[in-house]
Amino acid sequence: MRILIAEDEPLQRLLLETVLTELGHEVILTKNGDEALSVLCREEPARLAILDWMMPGIDGVQICSRIRAQSTRPYVYILLLTSRNQKRDLIEAFDAGVDDYLPKPVDPVELKARLRAGIRILELEDRLVAANETLRIQATGYARLINGSAQPCGNSRCFAAGIGA
Hints:
This protein is of the alpha/beta class and about 160 residues long. It is about 50% helix and about 15% strand.
């Protein structure tokens, strides 16, 4: 999976990159919020982003807010790295659309567990999108049949796709 790391601290960035690479992920490294947002706004962005809360440029929570405002984009699972531990800070992050957070310093075992959870959610989201597309195609076929613009062909696949006899 393609994963973005946005971390300005070189040692933390190296640790994250090492763990993700060992797990077989494609890693995109950025050092500040502006670079991270640019990567996430590409045509085919990373599906999972690990963002430091406090970094040069825009911070991780601001990036999250901007990504969530783009509802037409594929869903990006956002894991926020933070040394903040006050409840009001975490509530602010979750209200901005962060999916999960990981306290600093990063524990590689906990990172792996949270990544597995994020990847599971993304896989479920992909299946949901595919099921919705199937339903959309079927609804189109049924609508065409009801409106008289298609004839059933006796095959459920061509009927669902709106293909007549």
